[in-house]
Amino acid sequence: MTVTNRSPKVSILILTYNAPKYVYKTLKSLQLTSYDNYEIIVLDNGSRLFTKIINTYALSKKWISKLVFLPKNILFSPGNNEAFKNISDDSKYTLLLNSDVEIKDSNWLNKLIGIHEFGATAYGMCINKPIRADGYCFLVDTELYRKYKLDEEFEWWWGLTRFQAEILEKENCKIKVVKNHDHILVHFGGASRKGFFNTKDLQSAKGLDLAVEEVKSWFSKTEIEIIDSL
Hints:
- The protein is an alpha/beta fold.
- The protein is built from nine helices and twelve strands.
- The protein has helices at 20-29, 49-60, 76-84, 108-115, 142-148, 156-170, 193-196, 199-204, 212-217, and strands at residues 9-16, 38-44, 66-69, 91-97, 101-103, 119-123, 125-126, 132-133, 137-141, 174-180, 185-187, 224-229.
- The strands form three sheets. The protein has an eight-stranded mixed beta sheet, sandwiched between helices. A two-stranded antiparallel ribbon has the order 5-11.
């Protein structure tokens, strides 16, 4: 019997909330991925019907591995923590991927893992201080995510910022960011924001009114390695 040595498993977590055009583009373009051992877990945060139909179609086409529907939007930090409960036992890496990206290079995941060291590695960076990885394509060792998870007292950008500060403070790890990557992966960001946010969501989101000086105080270490391009 021939034994195939597969790459370490990556669990890709995707939250969806409306914006069906972008959700479809993300899930369809992921089919380009050449990495040989990954799963895609989609958690729908209470979307309207059309986005739910797209997610169900993607599952029927085996574009995704697991699909979870929630009755309401629990937002970014709790949503990723809930999606994480569905990863496989043999997952080595967890990757948080926004549902408004488009894969351009079939080797996008191979390249990201190729530069990864224990800690986190991401396409995209936040250039305002504290400099840190953006959250739309964020790879982290599963053992670190399991140990710390996202702090649900902080939403969206501050949730992932808090996570990065914590692992840098408490673990011997590195965080790397790839600054220029549109030839590999495109994040639509502001162009898709209308479909993902509404006034009710913003009112219920925790920890968004933090002063920047407080956020900076989280970072006693600043081991963020910036890679210009791959």
